[in-house]
Specification:
Belongs to the calcineurin regulatory subunit family. CHP subfamily. GO terms for molecular function: calcium ion binding. Its main location: membrane. By secondary structure, the chain is mostly helical. 60% of the residues lie in helices and 4% in strands. Helix 6 (63-69) packs across helix 9 (111-122). The relative contact order is 0.10.
Length: 154
């Protein structure tokens, strides 16, 4: 538990994350608690294996793609800041956020950033195109999952 104390969030870090992601102070501290509970190596980062232990992702047919979205190309660990940036794409779009500061960069949860994020889930080879094969892979995963669910129900 001692190593956790050295990785506690400082107030200025929370403020920076609030500005960057739009999450509230309480949401950030709650998500930090979840992050540290997933950090089995207690090193301040999460690995793909840490994400794979999340039951909802393990059973999701697109779970591997969602997990991959947390990791920049060539990286195999994500820190709390990167974790929060990715989660920010899932925040609802709030109309009043769009008009706050016209010189500020577009929020991570803007429509265009959400579309780009979703697009990247399907663009497996990162060539800025979704090929027929990439789309078929997704449809097959979803189809297999639906068939398994139907069998389970009968």
């Amino acid at each position: 538990m001692g190593s956790r104390a050295s990785t506690l969030l400082r107030e200025e870090e929370i403020e920076e994350i609030k500005k960057e992601t739009g999450f509230s102070h309480s949401q950030i501290t709650r998500l930090y608690s979840r992050f540290t509970s997933l950090d089995k190596g207690e090193n301040g980062t999460l690995s793909r294996e840490d994400f794979q232990r999340i039951p909802e992702l393990a059973i999701n047919p697109l779970g591997d793609r969602i997990i991959n979205a947390f990791f920049p190309e060539g990286e195999d660990q994500v820190n709390f800041r990167g974790f929060m940036r990715t989660l920010a794409h899932f925040r609802p779009i709030e109309d009043n956020e769009k008009n706050k500061n016209p010189t500020a960069s577009e929020p991570l949860n803007s429509r265009s950033n959400k579309l780009l994020f979703a697009f990247r889930l399907y663009d497996l080879d990162r060539d800025d195109k979704i090929s027929r094969d990439e789309l078929l892979q997704v449809l097959e995963k979803v189809d297999v999952e639906q068939k398994m669910s139907i069998r389970f129900l009968h």
